[in-house]
Amino acid sequence: MESRHGGFSLFELLIAIAVIGIVSAFAIPAYRSYVETANMTKVTANFEQAIRVAQNAYNLQKTRAALGMDSPVPTTTDEWIALFNESGIEAPGGGPAYIASTNNRDTGRGDPVTGAIGVQFQPYREARTRRNGTVRPARDEQLQLWRPMYKSLREQRATISSSSIDVINQRQP
C-alpha cells in the first residue's frame, strides 16, 4: 500500500509564483498612480479651500461693515496661514498644508516637495511719485496663494482682494 503525502509539487509552486509576479507587475504601478493622483487632488483641494476661506473672510468683512460692526480680517501672512491651518490638515508630503511664500520662482511659491500651498499677504500701498517722475500706482491689499508644481500639477496663482479673485496658470512641470 502506497501512501501519498499531500502538498504542492515544485511545478505548481513555480506557477503560483509566476502568477503572483504577473499580477504585481500590473498592480504596483497602478497603485502608485492612484496614490499620486490622490495626493495631487489633495493639493488642489487645499488650494481651492484657501480661496473659499479668503473669499468668505472678505465677504464677512463687507457684511459687518455694512452693519456698522468691526470685522477683523487677517492683515499679515502669518495670520492668514493660521486661519487656513485651523482645520489641522496636512500637505500630502507631510507638514502644514499652508506655508509663507514669496513671489520668487526659485525659493518661494509653495513647496513642490510636500505640496504645501504658498501664502503671501501684501498690505495696501498708497500711490507715490518715484525719483524719475513716474507714479507708482496705489494697490489694494491682496492675498496671493500659490499652488506649487507638485508632481505633474501646473503651478497656479490666485490673487484675492476685497473686490476680486483672479486665478491664473503659471508654469508647468
Description of the structure:
- Helices cover 38% and strands 17% of the residues.
- It is an alpha+beta fold and 173 residues long.
- The protein has one domain (11-169).
- A five-stranded mixed sheet has the order 1-2-5-6-7, covered by helices on one side. Strands 3-4 form a two-stranded antiparallel sheet.
- A hairpin with a 4-residue loop joins strand 6 and strand 7.
- The longest helix is centred in the N-terminal third of the chain and has 57 residues, at 10-66.
- The relative contact order is 0.13.
- The model has no long low-confidence stretch (mean pLDDT 87).
How much beta, percentage-wise?
15-25%
Share in helix: 25-40%
How many β-strand runs?
A: 7
Return the average pLDDT rounded to an integer. 87
Stretches where pLDDT is under 50 for at least 5 consecutive residues are none
Q: How many separate helices?
A: 2
* SSE series: HHEEEEEEE
**Global Rg:** 26 Å
Measured distance between first and last alpha carbons: 73 Å
Largest sheet: 5 strands, mixed
The coarse silhouette is elongated
Q: How many domains make up the 3D coordinates? A: 1
Major sheet: order of its strands?
1-2-5-6-7
